[in-house]
Amino acid sequence: METEVFEQWMMYILVGGLILFMAFIIWDLAKKSKAGRLGTAILFLGLGLCLFAFLAKPVITYVIEVTKGIQ
Q: Where are the beta strands (DSSP E) in 8-61?
């Protein structure tokens, strides 16, 4: 296995694991603070928004590159 392929796989696996761990932290924070359903939703929305932005960036970049070729 080449170094570039290994690095690409580890990027997806480790960052994915980090995202899952951060989701667990948010859930645990909501549970310990007894936030309820609305509070939990607000916590996930507020704290999880940065995760969404991190995941949306490659998708948006791909869409822009694909549509640039169509024009």
A: none
- The pLDDT assigned to 52 comes to 80
The pLDDT of residue 58 is: 85
| DSSP code string of 4-16 | HHHHHHHHHHHHH
Which structural domain range is residue 66 located in? 3-70
Question: What is the tally of structural domains in the chain?
Answer: 1
Q: What is the C-alpha separation between 41 and 27, in angstroms, rounded?
A: 10
38-71 per-position pLDDT tens digit: 999 999 998 888 778 878 888 899 899 888 866 5
Instruction: Classify residue 2 as left (phi > 0), alpha (psi -120 to 50) or beta.
Output: beta
Angle formed at CA 50 by CA 49 and CA 56, multiple of 5 degrees: 85
